[in-house]
Structures are given as structure tokens and as C-alpha cells.
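Write out the bound-state structure for adenosine-5'-triphosphate.
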Amino acid sequence: MDIITTNNLELWYGSFQALKGIDMKIPEHQITAFIGPSGCGKSTFLKTLNRMNDLVPGVKITGEILYHGQDIYAPEVDVTWLRKRVGMVFQKPNPFPMSIYDNIAYGPRLHGTHSKAELNDLVEQSLRGAALWDEVKDRLKKSALGLSGGQQQRMCIARALSVQPDVLLMDEPTSALDPISTMKIEELMSDLKQQYTVVIVTHNMQQAARISDRTAFFLLGEMVEFDETERMFSMPSDKRTEDYITGRFG
Ligand SMILES: Nc1ncnc2c1ncn2[C@@H]1O[C@H](COP(=O)(O)OP(=O)(O)OP(=O)(O)O)[C@@H](O)[C@H]1O
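---
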């Protein structure tokens, strides 16, 4: 089943068109990767999926994005609700300057959960979900800034999980991490797809090939090709995809 569908999605920053006629169906419980050269619109497209671009001055979006069949740009849609359901993890880990516990409890508290028992439970479940619980269970009250970069990124994933999303958008989540932390996050993503749908922007083609089920190749604001990852990397159907994945440009 498809969890997100876009129909003829177009986006302009002022007079510059960053996305052109994107039609995509993102399947549930899979990892979908976006690849393509710098500036081709991968992050812009990712951010439209939970309306993170709304606040950019001069932005104009046309076309349609359906989440569980509902148009997310319809006037009745509560953007806070949308961002709970479609969570986001950024390139650089961005822990809040507070304890690990408070980082994770932040979202649930904001959304009205104040029972100590419930919060304890959510914090534990979220940290377990992000494969971090065993490493931090004895230091929950310590500052999150004391964690390593890789731990901070898994904590940011736990923070996204704490408000019970069903889609996780990840914008180059490992590009600031060392190889071992990267491997841990890649393993984690494979676990996460059992319960969530994961969409990841990556600069690293090997990473897309290793972890994703489907890959979309972007070029100059267009989605050139979208297919099962294995097929895309072995038998791309568009010459431009082939040139990119064989390193002839980009
Ligand atoms: N806030 C903005 N205002 C104006 N132009 C923007 C803005 N954000 C992005 N752009 C432009 O839109 C195009 C797509 O940018 P985007 O960041 O989506 O590309 P990307 O494929 O994610 O690139 P990278 O891999 O370098 O992160 C680029 O030409 C970029 O300069």
C-alpha cells in the first residue's frame, strides 16, 4: 500500500522552479531513497512531504500530496498533527540543551502528556526503538550534549519516534557521522521499517543501494526515474540515471 502519493507536484522559490511535475507513490513499510547531484531538489521534495517549506518566504507549491489519501495542503489540515505523523530527522544531530530524558519527553509534553508513568514509558520505548536504550538508560538525566555524534543522531531519531509518527523523513542523516555510527543508523533503519515508513535523502549511492527498497533519481528538479533499488542500480531505464550511477557526472 502507498502511504504518500504526489501528483504533479511543483515548487517555486520566487521565480526559480525547484520541483517539476513530480508524481510519486511512496510504499508503506519500505525505505525509499532520494539520490541525485547537489541542488537537484531532493531536500526540497522531502520537506514538502511534511510541509516544512511552508515558512520559506516566496515559496509557491502546486499539485497535490496525499497522505493516507488526504491532501496535506487542504485548509483543514492541522500542520502540527501532520508533523507528528510525518516526523523529520536532520543532517546534523540537533539535541536540545537539556537532559536525554527531557529531549525525548519534549514532544509528548508539548502535545499534552504529563503523567510521569506514561512519559517514562514513552521515553523508554522511543530510546529502544532508536537502538539507544542500553547505552543511555543509566544517564537519562544527564545532558544530551554529552553524547557522541552518532548517539545524538539516534537520540534525535528517538525524539521523532516519541510522538508516534508513521513516516520518518531523514535528510542525509549520516553525512555528519563516522563509519561505525553510520553503520548503526543503517542497521537501525532496517529495523524501523517494520513499524514505520522511512524516506531518506542521501548523497551516498552505496548507502542507497545498501539500505533502500526503492530509489528515486532527481536531476534539475525533475524526478527522472523511480524504481526498485536493485533494478535501478543494475538496469536503469534512463540514460541520465545510468550516467549518474556509473559516475559519469554529478
Ligand atoms: N530557501 C530557498 N530559497 C531559494 N532557493 C532555494 C532555497 N532552498 C533551496 N533552494 C534552491 O533549490 C534548489 C534545490 O535545492 P535542494 O536543497 O532541494 O537540493 P538538494 O538536491 O537537496 O541539494 P543538496 O544535495 O546539495 O542538499 C537549489 O538550486 C537550491 O539553491
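---
The pocket of adenosine-5'-triphosphate is lined by residues 13, 16, 18, 36, 38-44, 56, 203 (CB under 6 Å).
The chain has one domain: 30-40+78-245.
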